[in-house]
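Case 582 in the screening queue. Each case pairs one protein sequence with one candidate compound; here the compound is adenosine-5'-triphosphate. For every case the pipeline is the same: read the inputs, emit a complex structure as tokens, and attach any notable structural observations.

Predict complex for case 582.
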Amino acid sequence: MFKIVKRLIDWTGQYKKRIYIGFIYAFLHSIFTAIPIMLATYGLSAVLDDFNGKSELNPATIWLLLIAMIVSVLGRFLFSYLRAITQDSVGYEATAAERIRLGDILKRVSLGFFSQNNMGKLSSAVTTDLSFMEMFATNMINTVVNGYITVIVLILCLAFYCPLAGFISLIGVLLSALFLNLLEKHSHKNAPVHQKAQDDMVESSIEYLRGMQVVKAFKQDGVAIEGIRKAYSDSKKINIKIEKEYMPYNCLHLFSLKAVSIAVVAVSAWLTYCGSMDLPVMLMMDMFSFMIFSSVEAMNNAAHVLEIIDATLSKLKRIENANVIDKDGQDIKLKNADIQFDNVSFAYDEKPVLKNVSFQIPQGSTTAIVGPSGSGKTTICNLIARFYDVNAGTVSVGTVDVRRMTCDSLLSNISMVFQKVYLFYDTVENNIRFGNPAATHEEIVEAAKKARCHDFIEQLPDGYNTVIGEGGSTLSGGEKQRISIARAILKNASIVILDEATASIDPENEHLIQQAISELTVGKTVIVIAHRLATIEHADQILVVDAGQIVQQGTHTELIQQNGLYRRFIDIREQAEGWSIA
Ligand SMILES: Nc1ncnc2c1ncn2[C@@H]1O[C@H](COP(=O)(O)OP(=O)(O)OP(=O)(O)O)[C@@H](O)[C@H]1O
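Case 582 output:
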């Protein structure tokens, strides 16, 4: 238990000092808890001695005792308050710091990390797991450490009056610690199972909500909800099993404490009966015996919760230890926006995708990438942005190997417009500002005008302050696309990577999107995964990708004359668009 508490204290990092100062306040609080009882005992003895004629009671002594009792009760509240304000907010602060740390790490890992780690696990780590830490981290430190500080102080006070009672109490605490240890062993075994059930529940719920459109369209709610039902039922079964296993040790722990309380009462009564203990001291012992263990009684929950915290800390550590791809990277200011692939080979895990790919893209030119589905077009773009690291060869941007740069410094040179646009649950203005957090309202409006979205934004109920549904659910596909272009325009990066929409967009929307793209790409180095004939035809260079290799490279005029994949591709596109090249 103390090992986990130590781990928890280390986790609080820069706030550790406040936890230790809190322990001092907890110690003083315990002393001030014992003092009023001891003063009351002294007062009662003095009253009884006076009553029995042994010694005369001085009224000043009574007043002094009363004042001392008031001071010690006030002291008790003061130190309780000081401990709370010093320790209790540490959980919130350490959790906030951990959230920022994880966010920063997840931003810098390879995208492959997200395929290897399921979303349920990652989502519950940054949501439920950290909320759990937020609520229980300092609470548990307080329960365990401050609880034992209190019990030790009270046992010492007890031993001062009656060493035998102090010794019995110590045995009680040791016995309870033994049962807590057994309880902990069970919780240790169950904590990862409990956590997995929790992750499965989060993952199946996310999956169900994400796939709601498909569920509705195919009327398959029964099939879709099957996974959730199983996850919820497994979690229920595991929690009941944990509870059942926990009960016997919990009962033994509480029984040992209660039995010792009764033993202390019995010993003090017997000693009083034999004449070796005064009546007031016996009353004090009885009082102590019922309050001495209250701080240790709650340890059963702490032992169980600490095991879950231990498993959570291990999970957070695994994420923190994820391979950050730019840990040796430097902030480099690029001299130009040339892009170069030298013999690049790349595989997703074991699956080879690109083989010895080499090409050059001069600054300010437009390169169209075409090829069959699954040939590796998106992968090439992902490697320019270093979403993954190459297995062999070099990707250079501005003549610098991308591995020499930090992700932030590389990506500050690149704007990406994806087919699948993601908008955040936030205002339209903040969604556009994502391209440049320092942008003013006027700059945002300017970018929105260039991206042809100003007019429809003005029509929204709160204009630029309208909150967009999660993922952009309250906007049309074309509107979302133009907002993402406005973001890219605002970023004003020298390299633009575009994935042209394949889904059919109505002519009006397509026209507006093309105008927005023209505004975005003017004077930039452009790499476009092209589907429209007009884009392909006007490109300075076309890369034809097939099965992870560049099979043809040149301008439209050069490639159309060759009897290769490009010619066949153009024939198909012409038929699809109803075009004909003379
Ligand atoms: N994250 C991933 N993990 C494993 N394999 C992947 C991953 N992403 C893509 N692939 C595989 O790599 C290959 C190339 O994919 P890529 O997305 O680059 O093709 P593409 O040419 O852009 O296809 P499309 O035109 O259909 O978008 C495909 O076989 C695909 O299944």
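Case 582 observations:
- The domain at 415-492 is CATH 3.40.50.300 (Rossmann fold).
- The CA atoms of residues 533 and 577 lie 8 Å apart.
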